[in-house]
Structure formats: structure tokens, C-alpha cells
Amino acid sequence: MADRAWPSFATLFGRAPVVRGDAPGRVNLIGEHTDYNGGFVLPIATPQRTTIDVASRGDRSVRAWSRDVPDGDRWVSYELGHEPRTGRWGDYIAGVTAALQAAGHHCGGFDLRIESDLPLGGGLSSSAALEVALLRGLAETFSLDLDATTIARIAQRAETEFVGAPVGIMDQMAASLADRDAALFIDTRGLAFERIPLPPAFSLIVIDSGVSHRHAGGEYRTRRAECVEASRLLGVESLREVGLHDLSGLSLPEPLNRRVRHVVTENARVIEACDALRASNGGHFGRLMNTSHDSMKDDFEISTPEIDLLVDLAQHAEGVFGARLTGGGFGGSIVALADAASAIASASWIASKYERSVPRQPSILIPASIAAA
């Protein structure tokens, strides 16, 4: 899309924008499907971002245009207080304004232009980036008192209650609080967080498999329902309350026993990964990533053959400490931790081998020097 001349805000709406807002995507280094179970996660911001331009109107109308959807579907319009559910991308905009009003924050009508270099369905949380970017822009435009955690809570409410995607709060917290130089450790039960610097000797590799996914239904929703049912059977509020020492004594039917085992062991891996990152121990961090992927593949069953191939290639690439699926699963991207000196060459080798093996077009998203090439 970069080669096409796109209309500016002034061209679309006949006036200049007043405020610009933006937010990054996120890569989850470890801690998958733990956030909606009250557990631990460790995301980091991506260099790719979603950017919005906005200007207030003198009425209650919302008009929005997106660069990153197919021709014929770029425009959305509605009246505040009458947000429509259409099953289109505009539900994320309508969800944000509905959630804002439900939380007691009131904005007027506005015009909105959106553009993003985050891949849709790539597992980097393009939806949370859009929600947070819009909330940042609306907060400035209408002088709303919204701190970073409040923005994350409202964004999650928009996605879960309006869009209907049963996501945890990791994506919105990362879009609102993470940066590119430090992993963001989040205890999702109370939303306490800590930034843990990424040692300069390490680099991330993120490759989009070309297999898109969606969270608003399907197997993602099934996994969450399975965790809720397991919690009910165990008599706990969430699987956060189950520890490693409890696993040997659990009696649950298939596949709930394996779902619980993934969540409990994944929480433990996040804590170990934080210690490894603080100690600059890439080898141990990589082993935890590898084990995490095995757990997602075997116990939580959210991987695909394409993702497994990408992960296997990454795990055998020179200078790579470990690799795993990142995001909710059923497609999307992988993340690997690599020696910084090897990352560019290793990412190119992984993508090349993958492309020759499957009828999919991979995209190297990180290192950004390759993505921009």
C-alpha cells in the first residue's frame, strides 16, 4: 500500500486535523492465554504503529476513514449514542465511543483518518493499537481525564463487550504502556506492571506466517470457555489460583486437564523468563520460549502446521536462542530471541526456508531494517 497516493485528512474532510494519536502493536515474548486467567504476561511494543488524525465536529456524528481496508469498505459513519454493530472494522471505533460513554467520559462528534503498518490478523494486536490510538486522540481532542491504565481498560471493554472478542487485557495494556526497548511484565489480576530492559546484545525476530487469525469467535472463544469451565470444576475464581504443586493432584476430564496444565506452567515460565531477562541469560530465556511453544501446541492446541514449521526453522537458525508462537494462536506470527549480531541474517534465512516449503508469503516484521527494505 505504500506506493499508492492516499488522500490526506484535508482531502477527505475539507479541513485540517487538530490532533494526532498513535499506539504500537505488541509482541508477546511469553505468557499466552494467561491474561484472561488472571495470570502473568511479558509483551513488548513493536516498531509498527497505528496512527490516527482527528478533529472535532459541531454535532454528534462520527465519520471515519481507514487506509488499510479494501476499497469499498473504507468509510464508516454513525451517531454517538447509536453505535451500530456491523461486523466490520468500524465496530472497533463504535466500540470505543460506546465504552467511553459507559465509563462516564463524553466526547462530541469527530472526523477520523486511520493508517497503520501493523498486519491485520498477524498476531501483533492491530485492534488494540487502533483502540488505544483512538482513545489517546479523543482524550486530547475533548480534554478527557484518561491515564494509561484507564485507556487500556476502556479499550478492552470496547473489544470484549461491543466487538465481541473475548480477549484479556494484555494487548490493550501493551499498546498503552509498552515501549520497544523493554519488555512489560504485567500481573493481569491487579494490573501491576514492571518494565524490564531488553539487553542490547539480544534482538527479536518476528515473522508473520501469512495465516491470518481472528479473535471474535472460533477456537479462541472455545479455549477461554474451557478455562472458565475448568475453574468452575476446581472451585477457583481463576486458574491463577492453581500452582505448579497442584497439578499432580488435579482430576479433570480431557482436554480441560491439558488446558489447565498449559496456563499453570506458562505462568511459571513468565516468572522465570523475567529473571532470565534481568540476568541477560538468553539461553535460558530461549529454552523457556521453546517449552512455551510445545505447551501451546500440545496442551492448549492453538498452533498450526505453518506456525510449527516457522518455529522449528527459527529454533535451528544460527544465533537464535529460542522461538514460539506469539499471540492468540490459530495463525499469526512467531517471535524468536536471537543474538543481535545474527538477527538480520537469521530472519532472512528462516523466511526463505519457510517460503520454499509452504504456499504462504511470510513477512519479516522485526528486525525493522528488513521490514522496511
Can you give the helix content as a percent range? 25-40%
CATH-defined topology of the largest domain: Ribosomal Protein S5, domain 2
| N-to-C series of helices and strands | HEEEEHEHHHEEEHHHHEEHEH
Give the overall pLDDT as a whole number.
95
Uncertain residue ranges = none
Q: How many H/I helical runs?
A: 11
Q: Describe the largest sheet.
A: 7 strands, mixed
End-to-end separation: 14 Å
Task: Provide structural commentary.
This protein is of the alpha+beta class and about 375 residues long. The chain has two domains: about 10-195, Ribosomal Protein S5, domain 2, CATH 3.30.230; about 200-370, Alpha-Beta Plaits. The chain has eleven helices and eleven strands. The chain has helices spanning about 10-15, 90-100, 125-140, 150-165, 170-175, 220-235, 255-280, 280-300, 305-315, 345-355, 370; strands at about 20-30, 40-55, 60-65, 75-80, 110-115, 180-185, 190-195, 200-210, 320-325, 335-340, 365. Helix 4 packs antiparallel against helix 5 (about 170-175). The protein is globular, with a radius of gyration of 20 Å. The two termini are about 15 Å apart.
Q: Briefly, what is this?
A:
With 373 residues, the chain is α+β, with helices and mostly antiparallel strands. It has helices at 9-13, 90-102, 126-141, 148-163, 170-177, 218-234, 256-278, 282-298, 305-315, 343-357, 368-371; strands spanning 19-30, 40-56, 61-66, 75-79, 110-116, 182-187, 192-197, 202-208, 320-326, 333-339, 363-366. Strands 1, 2, 3, 4, 5, 6 and 7 form a seven-stranded mixed β-sheet that branches. A four-stranded antiparallel β-sheet has the order 9-10-8-11.
